[in-house]
């Protein structure tokens, strides 16, 4: 079994995932729009350029996402009740990623030493996604 997180957005999925790929040094091998998906021919024009599925690959790990279609569950309410956790090997990498992801977002716990980690911090990025950055030991 393999378990991956799947994020939903309200029209800015592509922007978010391109930013995550840049910050996390990842690849986007798959990005598909509603316009290209079977069964979406009658979708409203404003939805056709939205992302129906994207896949980010970073060091053998996967994060996926899409833009929410209003007809599939009502209005978008943001990411709630979950965070994406990044466990990094060095304090320098923790600082770099924390700074990049918090730019334009909101820091909920500053990056600092804790009883379990050399550095740990929490933030919500500018796309509304909560992240936990954890560096248990400096490699």
Summed up:
It comes from Pseudomonas triclosanedens. The protein has 139 residues and is α/β, with parallel strands linked by helices.
What can you tell me about this protein's structure?
The chain starts with a strand and ends with a strand. Helices cover 17% and strands 36% of the residues. The chain has 2 domains: 63 residues, 2,3-Dihydroxybiphenyl 1,2-Dioxygenase, domain 1 (Roll); 52 residues, Signal recognition particle alu RNA binding heterodimer, srp9/1. The mean pLDDT is 93. The radius of gyration is 16 Å and the shape is elongated. The strands form 2 sheets. It has a 4-stranded mixed sheet, with helices on one face. A 4-stranded mixed sheet has the order 5-8-7-6, covered by helices on one side. The chain is α/β, with parallel strands linked by helices and 139 residues long. InterPro entries: Glyas_Bleomycin-R_OHBP_Dase (IPR029068), PhnB-like (IPR028973). This is VOC family protein. It comes from Pseudomonas triclosanedens.
Q: What integer value in Å does the Rg equal?
A: 16 Å
Shape: elongated
How many strands in all?
8
Measured between the Cα atoms of the first and last residue, the distance is 29 Å
CATH architecture field of the largest domain? Roll
Q: Helicity range of the residues?
A: 10-25%
Record the strand order, biggest sheet.
1-4-3-2
- Any idea of the CATH topology of the largest domain? 2,3-Dihydroxybiphenyl 1,2-Dioxygenase, domain 1
Strand-pairing-aware structural class:
alpha/beta
Descriptors for this entry?
Signal recognition particle alu RNA binding heterodimer, srp9/1, 2,3-Dihydroxybiphenyl 1,2-Dioxygenase, domain 1, 8 strands, Glyas_Bleomycin-R_OHBP_Dase, VOC family protein, 2 domains, 139 residues, four-stranded mixed β-sheet, PhnB-like
């Amino acid at each position: 079994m393999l378990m991956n997180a799947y994020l939903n957005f309200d029209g800015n999925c592509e922007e978010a995932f391109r930013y995550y790929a840049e910050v996390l040094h990842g690849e986007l091998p798959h990005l598909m729009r509603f316009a290209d998906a079977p069964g979406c021919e009658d979708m409203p024009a404003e939805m056709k350029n939205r992302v129906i599925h994207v896949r980010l690959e970073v060091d053998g790990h996967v994060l996926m996402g899409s833009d929410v279609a209003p007809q599939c569950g009502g209005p978008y309410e943001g990411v709630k009740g979950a965070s994406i956790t990044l466990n990094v090997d060095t304090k320098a990498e923790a600082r770099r990623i924390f700074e990049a992801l918090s730019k334009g977002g909101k820091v909920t716990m500053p990056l600092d030493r804790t009883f379990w980690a050399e550095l740990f911090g929490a933030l919500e990025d500018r796309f509304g996604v909560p992240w936990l950055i954890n560096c248990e030991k400096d490699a």
